[in-house]
Amino acid sequence: MASKKHIKRILFVIFIVALFIDTAISGLFAWFQDSYGVTFREIIYTIKSPLAGANSSFFLGAVRYVVPKLAVFAVVMAVAIILFFVIGKYLSVDIVFKGRSGKEKKTDAVNFIAALLFIAVVAYSVKIISDINSRLQISQFIKDYTARTEIYEDYYVMPDVDKITSEKPRNLIYIYMESMETTYASKDVGGEQPEINYIPNLTQMAEDNISFSDEEGIGGFISAKDTDWTMAAMWATQTGAAFNFPIEGNSDFGNQEHFAKNTITLGDILNQKGYYQEFLCGSDGTFGGRKAFFEQHGNFRVYDLYTAEEEGYLTPEEEVNWGIEDWLLYDIAKDELTRIAAQDKPFNFTLLTVDTHHFDGWICPLCGDEYPEQLANVLVCADKQIYDFIGWCKEQDWYDDTVIVIQGDHPRMDQSLVSYAKDRMVYNCFINTGYDASELKLKNRQFNTMDIFPTVLEAMGYTVPGDRLGLGTGMFSGRETLCETIGSDYIDTEVQKYSQFYADNFY
Description:
Alkaline Phosphatase, subunit A; 9% strand
């Protein structure tokens, strides 16, 4: 049977290990929240999603952040263990204190240190749990997951494809720019940068064409809850609904035989209107369920990293980042658009860029080094590339019959260049719509990701009955959005809850 002395030593080691684990957990979650600014909900969906095509720097970033802190902690604890086991072996110290009755009591230093360590472990653990809950909103997630909402019963408008009509269908080029928010613009035009506008071309395109804003400057739309990561944003802009599937189902999205079978999407509508549709991305198309979604809703051809390799644009050894750099992606887009436009049918060509992804973006061969921040150089480069691509489009024979939509998918997830921003709105620009900007209500609007769904159809020249689809409102109609009538905070609260309507119609 172990002696009391040995038991105390074992307890001492257990307490030290507990503190070490607490420090590791605290550091990991602090890194994740500081880097991404996301909540527990997004973490769960990310973990449950297929990780094919994911960037290994995600894991390396966590290691680089946490390991130095643990190293310092380990050194301190090693010293403490040495003092406890070596010095304590030769030095016995009694500590005298008074009990509640006023009588003096004695205990040796080992007992006293063990008691202090126990209290420290408990207090530190409680603090860490509280901090993690505060940062990641875990208790709110549990509350939302068990709560019920009727926002879809009250406000969702089911698309009626036959009633969505156009006298002359227009082609669509739909560009999702990774993490493109208007925060990157300078304050004098409505952004958040003190002096430098890192997206001058996107800013000018917004001014020259049609861009809806929450203010007088460049502004943009609100990234609603459950629409604030890439797959969720694409889902919301294609369906007018938030992405609120069961957690256990998200891991299978990339392999589902039926991805939200009963949902009517933008792709479904245009497919029934006779459009050829293609989705181009620079990574593995199955990541996050994108391939399944686009193939099953609109019969899209999904052109991804592996398609590019098969067609000789690059070899597996030439892959970088998550796959294809944007400069090559735009080259592929030009070739595909030239091929597609030769067909005798309208087209919807959807493109997802990636170079501006966290962390700090990806430096490609076209990027300069004018600024000390890596992301600043990446943004300037991305801004120039999209401008050149739109310029190329304008030179093509099919341009006059084509609407181009440029939007960010969501605000950036790390804190580069945006840590001090108060209002982080997502970029939007509608080019070649045929609308007169002077006749539209463009400024001081409140709208979110889901409003983009009917707005894209309106931009293409389609008439949307009642100006509403899903939870979205067509911005070209001038009609008040749900954000403007019931409030964005209310929408954010409700779409995170369980909806029986959602389950019956979308699962």
